[in-house]
Amino acid sequence: MLVVDECIHDAAVADITKFLKAGDIMVFNDTRVLPARLFGMRGQARVEILLHKRQSVEHIWRAFAKPGKRLKPADKIEFAPDFHATVLEKLPTGEVVLRFDYDDKQGIRALLERYGHMPLPPYIEKQRAEVDEQDDKQNYQTVYAKHDGSVAAPTAGLHFSEKLLSAIDAMGVKHAHVTLHVGGGTFLPVKAEDTSEHVMHSEYAVVAQETADAVNNAKAKGGRVIAVGTTSLRTLESATDEKGILHPFASETSIFITPGYRFKMVDMLLTNFHLPRSTLFMLVSAFSGLEKMKAAYQHAIEHKYRFYSYGDACLLFPEKR
Predict the structure, then answer these.
(1) What is the residue-wise DSSP string for 97-125?
(2) What is the pTM of this model?
(3) Which of 55, 78, 218, 235 could form an S-S bond across to 178 if both were Cys, CB 3.0 to 4.6 Å?
(4) Residues in contact with 89: Cβ distance below 8 Å, sequence separation at least 6, in sequence order
């Protein structure tokens, strides 16, 4: 774990307890990753589908298709004799809208568990002889994952074990959960030269009344709010008003945080390392300062920190203003 404060220094994730104090509150994203990668047949052609966002009903989803150019509305894709989908629409963004047809009374999630694969990032998939491994269904989930809906893990949470969480609790550090279902758009690069022209993807997020009360109470008593992951941070900032009060929230959020943003709630951020030109690198630069983050990433490269989903973490403190 790279600690980015007034100075930059090396640590381990287990050392996070050294930077916390009683009365602080850590906020975790308890979304659960779905085995949302499917392989099917359109006639004689093989099609790969990556579900990334459920529509208003359980059996209609937006998805990325590969190859997708030849798909057209009314095409049928068969994943198994009892599990197939119909293309309802092709969107200008390159996505398709699918309606799943099945007889299983348990619903689509049971079928995804049976036939789906974990949507591992491409840089992991290409290192594998198989599409995924059985261990991925456990390793690519946080230990506190609860609510189905993501197509990518909130990777900062992967660093936490039950043992570490117990050690943090024993310090008198509180914890709370939000839910943000991570969509495929999270990791897309920003191609626009002017960030104001970038269209940010939207994701569904939830802040329960219990969480809002816990965070507001901790803050009022002088505790710091530590977001575990950029998804937790974006959820908190989406649900906080201009007076710094967190409210219950259950809606889409497309918040796009870039340098110059004034943070309303979060005091510290634990996150993994992000790619250049990504919305996530812009977020961490807004939080800790662009020049500080450039220096931190240069240090990380020189000291062989690991990037990407199964990589190392950094604990960020806010830029002094």
Answers:
(1) EEEEEE--TT-HHHHHHHH-B----HHHH
(2) 0.89
(3) 235
(4) 73, 96, 97
- 36: nearest Cα among 69, 62, 75: 62
Structure tokens at 115: 């036939």
- Of 79, 73, 81, residue with least CA distance to 41: 79
- Domains in the chain: ranges and CATH: 2-33+140-316 (3.40.1780.10), 37-116 (2.40.10.240)
SS3 60: strand
Q: What is the pLDDT along the chain (321 residues), one digit of tens a residue?
A: 999 999 999 999 999 999 999 999 999 999 999 999 999 999 999 999 999 888 877 789 999 999 988 899 999 999 998 899 999 999 987 889 999 988 767 788 889 989 998 888 776 765 665 555 667 888 899 999 999 889 889 999 999 999 999 999 999 999 999 999 998 655 555 454 554 544 567 889 999 999 999 999 999 999 999 999 999 999 999 999 999 999 999 999 999 999 999 999 999 999 999 888 788 999 999 999 999 999 999 999 999 999 888 899 999 999 987
β-pairing, 96-102 vs 147-150, is unpaired
Q: Which among 126, 138, 144, 158 has a CA at the least distance from the CA of 311?
A: 158
